[in-house]
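Fold it.
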Amino acid sequence: MKKNWYAVYTKSRCEKKVSALLTKKKIENYCPLNRLLKQSPDRKKIVQEPLFTSYVFVHITEMEMAAIRQINDVVNFVYWLGRPAMVKDVEIESIQQFLSEHSDVQLEKTAVNVNDMVRIISGPLMEFEGNVVSMQNNKVKVILPSLGFMMTAEVQKSSVELIDYTYKLRNMVS
């Protein structure tokens, strides 16, 4: 059976704990952690907090779903159209790359819209492709379609090129 990534909904503030339990049971998982600078009255400190509140991603087969539901602090799978939400490998990789290159990442819940596809041609996100939701000043918003979230990062407008998929398709067919 093929393994796919699925989003698991956890009890509040239990993302790291669930990830540790999954790892202990040798179940491949990913709990995206956002690096944040927290300031208390006497010092500054970098902390790692879950990027997606109450979400952990698991890489499993459908046969393993029942075992995941039995893990302490797992509420259930996140559902989309009546089925557990499958997350594409490329989206997990995009989250991992985004978090490795940026700290203090902001998430914004959004409905997925069909927009122009772009490829970033320079900078830390070079070769990254995604749907552009908006370009304001130097910010680009990238959609993660399977989850309906956007990640926001600073990217120069000059670092983005439009992808012409009709041209790509014509060349692939000929």
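Confidence is low (pLDDT under 50) at residues 166-174.
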